[in-house]
Specification:
It comes from Sphingomonas vulcanisoli. This is GPH family glycoside/pentoside/hexuronide:cation symporter. Belongs to the sodium:galactoside symporter (TC 2.A.2) family. The chain crosses the membrane at residues 66-91, 97-121, 133-152, 158-180, 200-220, 226-249, 278-303, 315-335, 342-362, 368-388, 424-446, 452-474. This protein has 487 residues and is mainly α. The protein has a single domain (2-34, 71-252, 262-484), classed as Growth Hormone, Chain: A. The chain has 17 helices and no strands. Helix 12 crosses helix 13. The longest helix is centred in the first third of the chain and has 38 residues, at 2-39. It is globular. 58% of the residues are buried.
């Protein structure tokens, strides 16, 4: 019965993925056709060319220092999403569904915190500004939580949940004010793209450390509980250093002061839902981040269960992928100026999905060349979609400021963080239940049904990325209409 259920689930997911590919390509082509129909032979105006906002330039050291904080955030995110489900299931001997539920519960707590921290930072006035006190507190709490969860004295679910909640608190304290800062640092959409290109480069560095160094540390220590304890120490130290650097460097950044205004929950929801570009961006990021979380939670299983390369092959894939993503920051800003952020965003998503679906063709003994081709191709287009998504975030925040005259970037950063955290809660939980339903091995990677891993890596993750193209088409029209409006 379990095998029949697993086979049915696998076929259903595969059919849905194929349908989404066809539908997304048709919708994307229609969106480009509408653009040409409306505008004739004239090129689509980009956000930058339509913007009434003047350009200004920020010092490169400030951009680097601010972006460096993403090394810490990515170690927190990827260290959890890549290693924790594997650690809970294979080392602590938990059922996959229970492990996924614990991760979901911690992320749910994190998501609830997001709007609270966002509005709190909006209202804060201190000698360090509105955002920077949270950066300092967040770095300390994240480091403490990472140490605790990997050095847990027991497999008690409540103890693990408490450690994860500590990480969640620290991550919210750091990341939400952090993401609100670019909209305050400059009024130029072009400079925001430049700032975010540094952030995405350091996202690549942090992701490489989390997905390359940390698994190798675990392997070097024998892969047992003590080895993962060392992983916790390394992750905590690296995260703390990165976040403290950002706290120190951003002391020179332009900042805004709190007006003391208080917003009700209803007013916050109204501000978010009435901002069309931001709402479409959130919908797209929801799909993409659930897909990313599902990939992160299952990719180690894929390399050990399907390909057979283990941590070493995973580290090589991650290293080349992140190097390609970082290198691509040299060209994506040019395409952004030439074709517009949203158009480039949708194209990068579509092509990234193609590389994602190609994992369905991988099998035991997959060549190193095949893995590296996927790493480089996926890394380039992941860099593009990440940069465009991140650079559009402060642009959509600026829409609210121009319309309302209020500085409430923290509200929007909190909403964005809520979606991010909810996504990273749903992704691992979905993978855990897919594994459970399709009969994947409970305690270890040997003997499990590989179709469950294929479903998570090669269907669920890229399929969700493809789905995100739909809100991007709506965002394109909404953002263009705003910049052309008399407001």
């Amino acid at each position: 019965m379990a095998n029949r259920g697993g086979l049915f689930a696998y076929r259903a997911i595969r059919a849905a993925g194929t349908a989404m590919i066809r539908h997304a390509i048709v919708i994307t082509l229609r969106g480009w056709h509408v653009r040409k129909t409306i505008q004739g032979a004239q090129p689509m105006a980009t956000v930058e060319s339509m913007s009434p906002i003047p350009t200004d330039r920020l010092p490169t050291p400030l951009k680097i220092g601010w972006g460096f904080g993403s090394v810490g955030t990515q170690i927190v995110l990827n260290g959890q999403s890549l290693l924790l489900l594997f650690f809970f299931v294979t080392v602590l001997k938990m059922e996959p569904a229970l492990a996924g539920t614990i991760l979901f519960g911690a992320k749910l707590f994190d998501a609830v915190l997001a709007p609270i921290v966002g509005t709190w930072s909006d209202r804060t006035n201190s000698r360090w500004g509105r955002r920077r006190p949270f950066l300092l507190a967040g770095g300390i709490l994240c480091a403490a939580g990472l140490f605790c969860v990997f050095n847990t004295p027991t497999a008690n679910p409540l103890v693990l949940l408490a450690s994860l909640m500590l990480i969640s608190l620290g991550y919210s304290f750091f990341n939400i004010p952090y993401m609100a800062m670019p909209a305050e640092m400059t009024d130029s959409p072009i400079e925001r793209t430049s700032i975010m290109s540094w952030r995405i480069a350091f996202v690549g560095v942090g992701t490489a450390l989390a997905t390359t160094l940390l698994p190798l540390v675990a392997k070097a220590g024998g892969g047992g509980k003590a080895a993962y304890g060392t992983v916790g120490v390394v992750a905590a130290v690296l995260t703390l250093i990165a976040m403290l650097i950002t706290f120190a460097v951003t002391g020179r950044a332009r900042a805004t002061s709190s007006s003391g205004e208080r917003f009700s929950f209803t007013a916050m929801i109204g501000a978010i839902t009435s901002n069309g570009p931001f709402a479409f961006l959130l919908a797209a990021k929801l799909c993409q981040l659930i897909g990313l979380a599902a990939m992160s939670a299952s990719i180690l299983f894929f390399f050990k269960q399907v390909i057979g390369g283990g941590e070493s092959m995973l580290a090589l894939w991650s290293l080349f992928g992140n190097a390609a993503s970082i290198a691509s920051m040299l060209v994506w800003p040019y395409f952004s100026k030439r074709y517009g952020k949203v158009a480039v965003y949708a194209a990068a998503v579509l092509l990234y999905s193609v590389f994602g679906f190609s994992w369905l063709l991988a099998g035991p003994g997959e060549s190193t060349l095949g893995v590296l081709i996927r790493a480089v191709g996926g890394g380039v287009f992941a860099g593009g979609l990440s940069l465009m998504g991140q650079s559009l975030l402060p642009d959509t925040m600026a829409v609210d400021f121009v319309r309302s005259g209020m500085r409430r970037e923290g509200v929007f950063a909190g909403a964005y963080s809520f979606v991010e955290k909810a996504s990273f809660a749903l992704g691992p939980m979905a993978v855990g239940f897919i594994f459970q339903i399709m009969g994947f091995a409970t305690h270890g990677v040997a003997g499990g049904d590989p179709r469950a891993v294929y479903a998570a890596v090669g269907l669920l993750s890229p399929g969700l990325y493809l789905l995100s193209i739909l809100p991007l088409l709506g965002m394109r029209r909404s953002l263009a209409a705003y910049y052309r409006s008399p407001e």
